[in-house]
Amino acid sequence: MASCGGGDICHCTPTASASQDFRHAEKHVPLPNGTPTETTVAQILGWALGPDPTNTTPRSGRELTLYHISIAFLQNARLIDFDCDVHLEISDTPSKTAPRVIVETPIDPEYCTSRRQLQSALSQHHFKLRFISNANVSQSELPQALPVSVLGLALRDFEHNRGSQEVGTPWELHPAEVTVQ
Question: What's the whole-number mean pLDDT along residues 73-83?
Fold first, then answer.
């Protein structure tokens, strides 16, 4: 079982090695400087899928662009024991049945401040960020959606069960920083 040292969200021990994490090298990069491209959850849901990438597929095309979503609604939040990433589901509206996109904040040191701020903001809304497997994804559903903004890089994951049934695309923002508004 993964754990956070003393409850510190920045000191987590994954249950899997980096070699077991799909496209690990592509997900564990710093966000680039520069002006991000504005987008929405609906636009991400409409991105062409193309073929599933392989574990060694380098970032290319859309994955090289820094994106910003000025307003989305955080529906689901959990720590994934496999890699210790914060795994979030966002939508364009607060409706619990709205289509969602996955956003992930990795365990890497440059994301520590963002992870702590997110954990604190969720705590202020009486929601505890905790380890949940994808099999128990409903246990990480927020009682009501929270408005957030997101800054991140696009990443094309492969087709597999990555979250709730509302997740509508294998496109993610990963790595990303999420700010509760």
Answer: 93
Sole residue written with tokens 């508004």? 181
Beta bridge partners of 180: 148
The count of other CB atoms within 10 Å of the CB of residue 161 is 10
**Structural domain count of the chain:** 1
| pTM score of the predicted model | 0.93
More confident residue, 131 or 117: 117
Residue 133 structural domain: 3-180
Q: State mean pLDDT over 95-113.
A: 97
